[in-house]
Amino acid sequence: MAKSLVVALGLWALGGLLGLHHLYLGRDRHALLWILTLGGFGAGWLWDLWHLPGWVATANGSPRPPQDGAVPILSPPRVVGQLLVGAYFGLVAALGVPWVPPPLAVALGVLLVASVGDQGTNRSHVLVAAFLSSLLFQGGLLPTSLATTAVAAWHRRFEHPRDPPPTLAARLCHLGLGVAAFGIPLAWGGVSRALGLAGTVLRLPLRVGVLPLHAGWALLEGLGVVGRAPEG
């Protein structure tokens, strides 16, 4: 079914931060990226408006297989996106998902941006670069993301379109799994931290309430009115 620019614009306006226009145009990895970053931190959502006509035309045309050996032109916005999303994923893992190594999260963020559209990169090289650079930079997220982005950009390539294309149900299932893989650990980390904070807040009045008792007992001990409590 042919895609409509009017429908794409409407989805961009109403649900663009969640990537609904990308989902409509068959750009599922771009939709996943937008869901996880709320439209590329808002700036990417605005940038999409200028590209919608071209994406609609591409969606309505027959997919062209890339030429053997062709390398995509280096895109500065894609490189910046890889750097920022890689560092963002690493920060989320460090703060909210303690059982996910931050270098792995950085690599996943860089790979997600690198796979948007018809492009991709060498996944194994990116993963190795993330862990090695994390060791080299002693866990620094920004330099780790920068080094991983450089490797992903160096190995950039075109990806062959799937033939036949997946069904809508399969696409939605894959998208849901991607969101769950990121969202469930993050939500669990947030809930755990919230429960720990709530427990501290609830215990605070009890601790404050017994302070006068401790102070009064210490005063009576100092005056010799009562003896010291026997030590166990």
Automatic annotation (TrEMBL):
Residues 2-50 form the TM2 domain. One of its GO terms (cellular component) is membrane. Its main location: membrane. The chain crosses the membrane at residues 6-24, 31-47, 87-114, 126-148, 168-188. Keywords: Membrane, Transmembrane, Transmembrane helix. Signal peptide: none annotated. The keyword Aminoacyl-tRNA synthetase does not apply. It is found in: Membrane. It is a multi-pass membrane protein. PANTHER family: DNAJ HOMOLOG SUBFAMILY C MEMBER 22 (PTHR44733:SF1). This is DJC22 protein. It comes from Mionectes macconnelli.
